[in-house]
Design brief:
By secondary structure, the chain is mainly alpha-helical. It is built from seven helices and no strands. It has one domain (14-131). Helix 4 packs parallel to helix 7 (111-131). The model has no long low-confidence stretch (mean pLDDT 96).
């Protein structure tokens, strides 16, 4: 019974590690395209940076979860993870249209722009996840 339950462990490990690699890649790319330094701001106890980055991460992870659940294979999963990353980058640039000084305001610790960016990222991620129908 236990061995039967553990039969899926190799696949779990492959997809779990794939997900972790995709998350690290997302954080690397996303924090490079934003003008503000999220991790430095978070180290300095800036809640605005933590909110914006945390919600954007959820906006990326939602479609990543869908990709893992529905992917035909690991390469398929990585392709959809890349698409999810591109969507999040586009969202970052789109939400700056009504708030052109978004990064400066997040770096200054202002919560409203951080919440706007974070929730827009999460909304786009949820929509992205729902659209991943293969």
């Amino acid at each position: 019974m236990i061995l039967q339950s553990l039969a899926g462990l190799p696949a779990f490990l492959v997809y779990f590690c794939t997900g972790l690699v995709a998350i690290v890649a997302y954080l690397f790319v996303y924090t490079r395209i934003t003008p503000h330094n999220e991790f430095q701001l978070i180290r300095e106890n800036d809640p605005a940076a933590a909110i914006a980055l945390g919600l954007s991460l959820l906006g990326f992870v939602a479609p990543l979860v869908s990709a893992i659940a529905h992917a035909a294979n690991v390469l398929d999963c990585l392709i959809w993870a890349f698409i999810a990353l591109v969507v999040q980058v586009i969202v970052f640039y789109l939400v700056r249209v009504p708030v052109p000084n978004l990064s400066e305001r997040i770096a200054a610790g202002e919560l409203a722009p951080a919440i706007w960016l974070g929730l827009a990222s999460l909304a786009a991620g949820l929509l992205n996840a729902a659209c991943m129908i293969y």
